[in-house]
Amino acid sequence: MNRREFGLTALSLALAGPALSQTAAPTLQVTKTPTCGCCEKWADHMRDNGFDVVTHEVHNLQPIKQKAQLRPGLGSCHTAFIDGYAIEGHVPAEDVRRLLEQKPDAHGLTVPAMPVGSPGMEMGGRQDDYQVLLYGEDGVQVFAEHP
After folding, report:
1. In angstroms, what CA-CA distances link 109 with 59, 123, 132, 144, 147?
2. pLDDT in tens, 28-75
């Protein structure tokens, strides 16, 4: 490559750089029951933290839980999917963002049950300690702790 070709290539990459960095983020697809208010509050938390969120309401979440490959004891009140990962329950946006950055070999993240103080489960000043779990073929491990 001569100097002119090199210069043109460098200029092309410099001009394309901003356009490449503005690619659309994946959409968070949330499935919940029609009457679950905390699920909608969690979706709002995700929107407030920059995620594009689409909610789907169904009366039977069991097929969605199976699609997420959740083991017994890992479930919660809503299930979401983003970029090939399942997000189960009241997982904070910061943990979803870290999952998408690190891209571990896993099915997804879960916050089993519905801990008070987790996103969407705010109740005054009460804050229960809880863990965000990473689950997949290799088992379950703690991904984040929230005191």
Report:
1. 23, 23, 7, 10, 18
2. 999 999 999 999 999 999 999 999 999 999 999 999 999 999 999 999
| Alpha-carbon separation of residue 50 from 35, 98, 99 (angstroms) | 25, 14, 15
CA distance 35 to 116: 19
Domains of the chain: 25-146 (3.40.30)
Q: pTM, whole model, 2 decimals?
A: 0.84
Dihedral angle of Cα 79, 55, 21, 100, to the nearest 10 degrees: -10
pLDDT digits (tens, 9 = 90+) for 12-30: 444 444 443 345 678 999 9
Paired tokens of 28: 């968070």
